[in-house]
Design a protein that fits this description.
Blueprint: H1 2-25, H2 32-42, H3 62-83, E1 92-102, E2 108-114, H4 117-122, H5 126-135, E3 143-145, E4 148-150, E5 152-162
Antiparallel strand pairs: 1-2, 1-5, 3-4
Amino acid sequence: MIFVLMKHLWTYCLIFFICVSCDFFKKPVVTEEELVAQEKESINLNTVDVFPSFSNCDSLEKEQQKTCFFQTLTDQIYEQLAQNNIQVTKTIRDTIQVAIYIDTLGIIKVSDIQKKPYTDKYIPSLDSLIEVSAQNLPKASPAYKRGIPVKTKFLLPIILHVEEPLKEN
């Protein structure tokens, strides 16, 4: 009799364990909205995986490629500005902040130019000279984030130092 009672007890314990253990195997169901929200949190929108590049910088490592890109961009804009004979009646020293925009096709555009009012007063054609300089840049490879080309925007400082002509006595 004890044996039969023990047998039933074990059977009930086994059935109870099976019913309770189902909760151990139940996995939480994650909705699509939760997955998208988690993915959005994990993406840093302030950085890119691959920085924009010119063809002469493509073979370099990531940080060297970034440096090469900015150096090429700066050199070409300065070269274009130097070709124009800018004449002023006063000495001008200003740091101009040029907002450069590169679209997903690698086309470079100037989206904004910030400078001091007196710079605009003495060199009114400066904006158009900078925009023409940007238009004459070679096409760049766009930046990539997770293998997808993305738009980028950054500020390029241009240090402007133009001396007034010497006056003859």
